[in-house]
Hints:
This protein is an alpha/beta fold. It has helices spanning 10-20, 47-50, 68-77, 87-103, 120-130, 142-153, 158-167, 176-179, 182-196, 214-222, 285-300, 358-370, and strands at residues 2-6, 26-31, 42-43, 55-60, 81-84, 108-109, 133-139, 198-202, 205-206, 225-235, 241-251, 263-270, 274-281, 312-315, 322-323, 325-330, 339-345, 348-353, 356-357, 376-380. Among the domains are: 2-113, Rossmann fold (3-Layer(aba) Sandwich), CATH 3.40.50.720; 322-380, Alpha-Beta Plaits (2-Layer Sandwich), CATH 3.30.70. It contains twelve helices and 20 strands. Strands 7, 9, 10, 11, 12, 13, 16, 17, 18 and 20 form a ten-stranded mixed sheet that branches. A six-stranded parallel sheet has the order 3-2-1-4-5-6, with helices on both faces. A two-stranded parallel ribbon has the order 8-14. L-homoserine (HSE) binds at residues 116, 141-143, 170-172, 178, 183, 282-283, 288.
Amino acid sequence: MKVAVLGYGTVGVGVYEMLVSAKGLECGPVLVRPGKEDKAFKVSSLDAITSDPEVGAVAEVMGGIEPAFSYACQVIKAGKHFVTSNKALVAAKGVELNRLARENKVAFLFSAACGGAVPFLHNLALARESDEILSLGGILNGTTNYMLDAMQRLGLDYGDVLADAQRLGYAEADPTADVSGMDALRKIMLADAVAYGKLPKDGLLNEGIESITAADVAHFQSRGYTCRLLVSGGKNSDGSVCAYVEPVLFRSGAPECSVLENYNMAKYEGKNSGRIVLMGQGAGRYPTASAVLRDLSGILRGERYMFEEDCEEAAANNAEIQHCYYVRLPAAFASSVPSESAETSGEVCRLISKALSVKEMHALAKELREKGAKVFFAAIGE
Ligand code: HSE
């Protein structure tokens, strides 16, 4: 099957290189911006791809919602299978693209959009057929994991580790999506949609690592904790899904502490299977490209969809799950958070909250920040 590629950035180059030697697949044209057609295989018009009868599948690795969405619709309507690594696209337009692909009888697969090389969505799609998935989530952002790991093990500063993550090709073009937790949130939206047929849109909560300081990291370390950015999904007792991202503190020895550098750790709990954990590189050229190739090879074996036919958009409900939280805030605001214990040093207070729902803690932090308080919070892990 001849494969055209949309985009020739970090992942696009990897996909193209891997296609050269892939079994059953061959390289087709690569869409680049006008003026960048410096090689015969590069084209700048989508028509050159949609009108080429030899192209059987298109891999979109450009990122962003537009023009990726318009291109996806044109490719699918032209009868080409569509594979993407673009989580922003699938989180925003996945239900629509699933419907369009089914109408046009072409594949719509996006394994690379969640977990990089880690085959998380594929395994969820298999598990939902034979088991009830109770919860899912994990460490699904390579950039922030790389940053938190380097801050802890190498004692580096936030700005330096972010620059390194960008240089290594882990971060998004605009790394705000990574450090704010938005990138991880989009991934859990996809995982919820694969597992439960509900793509959560409203009520989502994301707390990233933008507020963390080297002093916070040193404080956790001195008390035997490691901080990771964790994303959580799952089904609530009322049938709704939860979807949120927040830093979590794990005691040494927890499996999350051994997730280093750009690695991801995806997990789910099946009612009968129990907990399943998958680890691997979640970001970077070849790990991500390998997932795109996995989908393309899957098409050769007859794989077509990750979302079920009736997958729909839904609201997230993050009021059910509760945690105790570590909260660092100005001492003057400490009484705003119901606490189990608190340590004040000068103008800074570090406290452990009473059990609060995820929704309550995120709302409390928002309220405090609106009053001008600098706040960092992290859930205390199991
Ligand atoms: N920026 C993303 C990450 C890339 O760091 O995980 C892979 O999705």
